[in-house]
Amino acid sequence: MWGLLLALATFAPAVDVGLGAPSTSVLGLTSPATTKAPVPTPRSSPAQPSAGKENGTSEQHVRIRVIKKKKIIMKKRKKLTRPRPPVTARPSVTTSPAGTLDLPEKQEPDCPPLGLESLRVSDNQLDASSSQSFGLGPHRGRLNIQSGLEDGDLFDGAWCAEQQDAEPWLQVDARHPTRFSGIITQGRNSIWRYDWVTSYKVQFSNDSRTWWGSKNRSSGMDAIFPANSDPETPVLNLLPEPQVARFIRLLPQTWLQGGASCLRAEILACPVSDPNGLFPEVPVLGSSDSLDFRHHDYKAMRKLMKQVNEQCPNITRIYSIGKSHQGLKLYVMEMSDQPGEHELGEPEVRYVAGMHGNEALGRELLLLLMQFLCREFLRGDPRVTRLLTETRIHLLPSMNPDGYETAFHRGSELVGWAEGRWNHQGIDLNHNFADLNTPLWEAEDEGLVPDTVPNHHLPLPTYYTLPNATVAPETWAVIKWMQRIPFVLSANLHGGELVVSYPFDMTRTPWAARELTPTPDEAVFRWLSTVYAGTNRAMQDPDRRPCHSQDFSLYGSIINGADWHTVPGSMNDFSYLHTNCFEVTVELSCDKFPHENELPQEWENNKDALLTYLEQVRMGIAGVVRDKDTELGIADAVISVDGINHDVTTAWGGDYWRLLTPGDYMVTASAEGYHTVTRSCRVTFEEGPVPCNFRLTKTPKQRLRELLATGAKVPPDLRRRLERLRGQKN
Fold first, then answer.
1. Which is nearest to 485 in space by CA: 398, 621, 394, 585?
2. Helix (H) or strand (E) holding 728
3. What interhelical angle do 599-615 and 522-535 show, nearest 10?
């Protein structure tokens, strides 16, 4: 155990550092204070160059008496007596004579990330000089990793060195010769503590024993890189000269006063050729599909959708469901053999992505999916051909285009965990739909469901439709879209985890943070979730580690949304209670905004899952409810399944789809003015849906109303039936 005893050889004039702005003049740079956290005190190492005189600070020496196992080591270190605020890093290409970095205005990373955030770098490739605990070990030093709720558990939000570690370092083994070009850092993610590094050095090695540092071009001294001034903002530093090595180390030099040396990082690195084959072959991230694997801003997305429409005009249609707060259109790509019309008996399905603008993978997957479906249809692929001839598919790649533009312009590695999540008004769209759960559950508690209050198609609450209600234009656009089209199945694509969550998303117990809250269709939702998770390559990888603080692989990579964390006003719950549509949320990747070079692999991870999930719309029963006399379809007829307290209704042509797992069911069709009809329907494991049609007969009163409305005479048989009914009533 190290013990530190500071003895000042000379004393500088008193400096007030109590509640002042945090500062670091060791970098030779200053900026306004950006945090109310405690003041960072610079910490220097014996090799640290002086930067104080050039910036008007006075230098004083501090003797540090280090006692270790009865040995006393005397070291001289420099103390800065006029601290200045730490700054977040800007590009580092030129240097100052003092060894600190003179930074140009802007930097662009020239190499992709090594893969700490995306988990391509495994835990055993990370090492450190020390760790405060297992939960703060080197395996937690990944960019954007999120901590658990309990401070000090196994899932903390950074790597943190021990307090007494005099020379802390975090090390990454690339396993192959690699061209390192830059580093991105964050502080510790925690709701209880403030910890971040304000400056660091970088070293390299080929054998993890002999190390050399990143040097300033002009002075030849070790470069000191400015790091973070808050826990969450990613800070990028490019190396003055890229270095080819196998190992890289980050050596924190200063950190927040009263805090610890804690950081999360991503390494920018390009692979280097290995002509002699001395190292194992580097896994190649790729796909055999020739698609446009890059991130698309609003203009590029619109252009790509237009290209797909021009390539496949007979099976595609582009339409807009509304506009964002900033006026960007919410474009949808419809794909069907008869685009633009609802065909009787053909189910409608949708994918929605980009509800959170910084979760970009879903957006790109839908753009890739529309390219793939178009190309494979032209090639005559039987699976795709059947999908497009038997299903009407709607793809909304960007529900929150304003948020995405913010995230896109920051860049995939620098957007952080939350920037761009909300729409331009600061509204989280996944909490912005009407809460229909509460009125339903209150009615159930009072015994009013389903006789007085329906268990389906609950109306919008009055407060939600008031002019001053806080409802985003993007939310309204999607609600009207849901009301316009009889969707049967949907998935809402998110990012930041690897799991499929299903309704209910809101806990039934008020104020409960999490609680298992199943719907009456628990079996169907678990089936749907398992289908996606079971065909997703990443979710089925037995060697994958948890993204953040929960290992969902223990539960088949699916979870009830409310049992994860409560989400009042979610789109999933609203879709289930306000329409016929069954919707789940798919968390696609640990990395919300993966780098472009990872898109081919992410497409391969999700391609089969996206197709297989669409095919689940055939699961269950389907049919048409018709008038027995006219053979016309009956709109808004109610389809009830015995034992499941949730009904669906027919579309305007009388057609319906009811998702069910295999089994025998008693199904009832009812409509106003008609006699109710019940029949048995068997759902098998064979690919369906199973036909289950109904013909309803009008009640005598309904027939009488229609005849009197047209001025026709009442037929004798109807007159006799009405007389019998009156006699029974008397």
1. 394
2. helix 716-729
3. 140
